[in-house]
Known about the structure:
Blueprint (H helix, E strand, L loop, with lengths): L15 H26 L14 H5 L11 E3 L5 H7 L3 H8 L33 H14 L6 E6 L6 H13 L3 E7 L2 E2 L2 E2 H4 L5 H6 L4 E6 L3 H18 L3 E6 L22 H8 L3 H11 L5 H24 L15
Parallel strand pairs: 1-2, 2-3, 3-7, 6-7
Antiparallel strand pairs: 4-5
Helix pairs in contact: 1-11, 1-12, 4-12, 5-6
The structure holds thiamine diphosphate and magnesium ion (MG).
Amino acid sequence: MAKTAVKEKSPSDIGLDTLLGHYKTMVLIRRFEESTYRKFREGKMGGYLHRYDGQEALVTALIPQLELPGDKILCTYRDHAHALLCGTSPRAIMAELMGRATGCALGKGGSMHLIDPDNGFLGGDGIVGGPVPISLGVGWALKYKNTKNVCVCYFGDGAMNQGGVHESFNMVGLYKLPVLYILENNQYAMGTSVSRSTGQPDFVKKAEAHGIAGERVDGMDFFTMWDAAKRALARIRETGEAYFLQVDCYRFVGHGVGDDNTQGWKFYRTEGEVHEWMKKDPIVKLGAYLKDAGVLPDELAEKIDQEAIAVVDDAVAFAEASPEPPLDSLYENVYS
Ligand SMILES: Cc1ncc(C[n+]2csc(CCOP(=O)(O)OP(=O)(O)O)c2C)c(N)n1
Ligand SMILES: [Mg+2]
């Protein structure tokens, strides 16, 4: 049984029960991602697959603060966790990954193209930097319609040197659009580190050069991420102007399924570097906080883990039992 809580509120003024819920979500993401990798290796998924292990705090400490579906989310192909946080069911995500008709993109999108507009999730994008020009249009629409809503646009460090990203930033800064940029700075674009690709690695300066204010955040710490997101969202709702968070983080596994955990990463990063970052595991860190606060005894942590595994197993069973899209639906939901 849980000990009596020794702290009533966490640093970010989140009740401990609520915080425990966020911890559960992060555990679910980790277990979900591990399962997708196994299923891909079993040949159950076509296309490609990118995991979010290590980056869980970037979504878990931000998306629950949004007003969905009025607020909108865009992200990259590394999109499973974003969909989960927006409220897309684990079943619909897993079914999409397996190309089944019950998937959130009707089985036609796969891992990189999850989408759930009813929940404000405007989708993952297979094009590096792709979400940024789209955020310009979404931000424009939110402003034009006179809403107080915000578009949150997640994208990777590999996109920060792209022309389309800077052209979009310029217009977002010029027109003062309500977009929150979350630069998922996991230090690498496939096998290329920021230091090998970027003359000015202080990305905040690049946003500021386009009239978008910003700051740098430690994405391995749930509370730091929560507070930065909270301030940024309040500021955007107040001023209507864009904001930029350079969120420093790390992906614990390879870039994608072709960059195997045990082989590929050694060509561009050392095991020592990976293990140093793993010491900052956001789930372990939040778990330690909750344990210290008296609300996460070992038995409960184990129970939460088992429950997450059960949710993922259920999603897998649902997906495997679902039909593929019928052939005659091939031309449905396409423009022409
Ligand atoms: C325009 C474009 N160029 C190249 C690729 C191939 N590609 C896929 S992922 C990737 C690396 C992107 O890294 P980053 O933006 O840092 O995101 P991360 O994978 O680290 O989340 C590249 C080059 C692509 N999908 N789109
Ligand atoms: Mg990256």
